[in-house]
Every structure is written in C-alpha cells, then in structure tokens.
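Lecture 7, part 2: worked example. A protein chain together with copper (II) ion.
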Amino acid sequence: MKALILALTATLTASPLLAADHTVKMLNFGKDGGMVFEPAYVKAEIGDTITFVPQNSSHYVQTYVMPEGATPWKSKLDEEFKVTLEKEGVYLYYCPPHLMMAMIGVVQVGKPSNLDAVKQKAEKLRPKLVMKKERLDAYLGQVAE
Ligand SMILES: [Cu+2]
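Predicted complex, written out as structure tokens:
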C-alpha cells in the first residue's frame, strides 16, 4: 500500500497539470517595512512557477546563487516576470537596485541539497546588506528538509 501511494505521489508530482504558480510581490513598503519581496521565502516543487509582480516601480529580480545546472533569472525593471523551477535546491535572489536594503528572497524547490553552498556564497552578499541585514539569516533559516 505504501509503495502504491509513493508511486501515485511520484506520478502526481510529475504532472505539469498540478504545478503551482507562486506569486511574489515586489513592494516599496512590506510588512516589515522597507522594500521587500513578499513572500520572501517560497517552498515549491519542480515544475512550479513563480511570478514576480511589481507593485511599485524601480524593482527587478536577479538570481545570486542557485542549484547546479539551473538557468539564472534576470527580469526587466518594472516588468512582471515568470520563471519555471526546473532544478531542485535552494535559490537566493535579489533586487539589484535595493540590495543595500536587503531586498532579497529565497526559493526552496524540493530538497535543499545545495544549502551549504548557498550559505557559503551568501557570506559574500552579507557585507553588501546595510539595512535589514537580519533578513538573510531569517530567510535562509526557513529552509527545511
Ligand atoms: Cu527593489
């Protein structure tokens, strides 16, 4: 029975019909104040999509670290942007004009197999965060098995 359920689950998760679309807003004033991605942490599965929606002007999104073999993302300023998550692992991204304000975000797709590599590279990003730098650890801290 358990094997059957596992087999069914595998079939279902492989179906593009069940892929979820997650919306992340790009805001000037988020719940914690300041410029932010909301939600800044997204748990997704392979095949899901994320749509980044600018609610205010002057934002865009670019990957900083991602799973091996994943295609980097870079959106256009003030434009909606949709990505399909094809590789499992952790993605760390930011809004280049507002990196100083820690306008960053984390996406976890399936298991966080590359989390150590992401944390290591995130240390190079840390000194560039001037305001709300606690977001980096807060967001990465939500990544779970
Ligand atoms: Cu921004």
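The longest helix spans residues 2-14. The chain has three helices and eight strands. Keep this in mind for problem set question 3.
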